[in-house]
Amino acid sequence: MNNIKGINRFFLLATAPLFGLLIALALSGPKIGWVSEPGQITSDPLAIDQTFEAISAGLQQAEETAQYTVSSIQQTAELYHRTTGTMATIVQAAKNTASKPESIYNRRITAKLGTPKETIKSDRIIIELYKVNPGNYKGYAMKVKLKSPDAMKMTLGGDKLGVSETTKQAASRYGAVAGINAGGFADAKGKRYPLSTTMMNGKYLNGFEASYKDLFFVGMNKNGKLIGGKFHSQEELDKLEPSFGASFVPILLKNGQKTTIPLKWQTSPLRAPRTVIGNYKDDQLIVLVIDGYDENGNSGATLQELQDKLFNMGVVNAYNLDGGGSSSLVFNGKVINNPSDGELRPVPTHFLFFK
């Protein structure tokens, strides 16, 4: 019995493809008749040929369609690559065009400074050091392009209120590539404290003090842009999102216009070593550090002279920082200016620049 079942299953499996083909032909083409009597066929033999021809034509059409699809995909891919390449060229051309006004403006302001004496470049900052010698005074200019807000910061002497250190000490301690002295200070009980409103890391060191007389606040905001001026309320300053800054006197340029220099600062002293910080309309910074052999008013530059020079250089805003024996410029670990004290003076605040 098991042998019979096995034989039946074998013949069923063996004949299954034939039955499947017949069913497919029956469904897809003209009816194929069965032999009713020997030598007699009930359907036209041409129908079978037509069925196979239809199937063959369908297969050929499918092959042609597949070949056309492959060709279309190849053409589309080639067009995509050409389009992508063209778009990349257009984008690069747009970038080059957009950068032209910036490079033209930079060449224009650089032409008024001369040839850089030294240059520091990195992906965070570009600093160019120039000599300044218009005839009435001598000193140095430092043009700074901040590519990252954290490439500049203000430091506190010994990181403590009341402590002071030289700009070179501060630069060395923090690993800065350049630095200048910052705000003014007041001495009390053998200690040296920053003058008026002073900020570090977005916080007020001694609280906010409204601007009075000729004092101003100057510093950088969280986006690495120079901010400064007189502020009569903390809310007014806070709107600018200051990151750090210090105070001194007086403002030299504001929004591209010369300010009135108070008579007191025009004559007391007449000439002196100076440190000034400002910015161009493209937000590049400019620093002037002017030499003088003493603080008696006979050497260095007048504020009027620096105001005129900065104005002619196209500087938009400019602020006079602490000067005299405090004026300091450190570049690549070297003291660049000639301090009037014969050596750098320890001060409480410094603006440092990082590579």
From TrEMBL:
GO terms for molecular function: hydrolase activity, acting on glycosyl bonds. InterPro entries: NAGPA (IPR018711). Residues 174-354 form the Phosphodiester glycosidase domain. Keywords: Glycosidase, Hydrolase. PANTHER family: N-ACETYLGLUCOSAMINE-1-PHOSPHODIESTER ALPHA-N-ACETYLGLUCOSAMINIDASE (PTHR40446). This is Phosphodiester glycosidase family protein.
